[in-house]
Design goal:
Elements lengths: L3 H25 L5 H17 L16 H24 L2 H8 L2 H12 L6 H23 L7 H19 L5 H17 L11 H27 L2 H4 L5 H14 L5 H23 L12
Length: 294
């Protein structure tokens, strides 16, 4: 029998793997409109979460006394999702994953205003180090005025709002309700893109697109379960395995070779995120079980 911490470690590893697989499929799906891929993420992402709804809540699962906060969480999450989907299709996988690790930097800054949290010298230094890393990674985009390099940053900004909102919502709302509302929002938003032209997938592509939703929904649940079963300090560092996966798969599938600047910038961003994380543990602040894409 595995201990709770060992189970938490296993669930975190499964979360990293499923998110990485979803990223690969999203990058591969460049022949299909972004809105169509979002439809599969929203519709089939509901399935894993649906099984967590208590039987007595099935008929009234949608009831909430905090609709405004749910709506804000969904809008900001949708912005982040669109940004990361487009970035994954247009930029090297390692660059997108590296910049996306900057989300804790934005969460730290936003928490000052939204949660009235106090941020000390160490975390401000970590934020500065992280932004230097982002600039190093994004330098080609800055030189060429390539807007695509801003998309992972838009994702980070969106996810920082999502994380703060989930911190507040999770005090009264179950995780499955937060996730289902977001999947429904993705589904509704995707339907407005039908007039721009969807492409009929063959059977193989149809199965892969379904996996975008299944993997995204499952990854969120694995992550939440990991945080419930084990100490966050023991499992959270596993999230950085996704960068290794991104480098390996990017090279093997798309022949993408990370530059030295990308690796150095990624090291700075990851280091700054770890510093922020460790300081939060030191101050015993609540670490949100917020997910990457939700």
């Amino acid at each position: 029998m595995l201990s709770k911490n060992q189970l938490g470690f296993l669930y975190m590893f499964l979360s990293v793997c499923t998110f990485s697989i979803m990223d690969l499929i999203v990058k591969w799906s460049g022949d299909y409109p972004t809105g169509q891929v979002m439809f599969f993420r929203g519709f089939f992402g509901i399935i894993p979460t649906f099984f967590l709804i208590p039987k007595e809540k099935l008929k009234t699962f949608y009831k909430t006394e905090r609709p405004t906060e749910h709506f804000l969480r969904c809008i900001m999450g949708l912005m982040a999702l669109i940004a990361i989907f487009v970035a994954l299709r247009k930029l090297p996988l390692a660059i997108v994953v590296s910049i996306s690790f900057a989300a804790p930097l934005f969460i730290t800054v936003l928490s000052i205003f939204a949660l009235s949290e106090k941020v000390g010298v160490y975390r401000w230094m970590a934020v500065l180090i992280g932004f230097v890393g982002v600039i190093i990674i994004s330098e080609p985009g800055i030189k060429e005025m390539n807007y695509l390099y801003s998309l992972p940053l838009i994702f980070c900004i969106g996810m920082s709002f999502v994380t703060i909102t989930i911190r507040k919502l999770s005090t009264t709302e179950p995780i499955w309700l937060i996730s289902i509302f977001f999947s429904i929002m993705i589904l509704i938003a995707s339907l407005f893109t039908i007039p721009f032209g969807w492409v009929m997938p063959d059977l193989k592509d149809f199965i892969l697109l379904i996996m975008v939703g299944i993997m995204g929904g499952s990854a969120n649940l694995f992550l939440t379960q990991s945080y419930k079963l084990s100490e966050v300090s023991q499992v959270a560092p596993l999230k950085y395995l996704s960068l290794i996966f991104a480098i390996i798969f990017g090279y093997l599938i798309w022949n993408e070779i990370p530059t030295a600047k990308t690796l150095i910038g990624a090291l700075l961003v990851v280091s700054s995120s770890i510093i922020i994380f460790r300081r939060e543990i030191y101050h015993k602040e609540k670490i949100p079980s917020a997910t990457r894409h939700e």
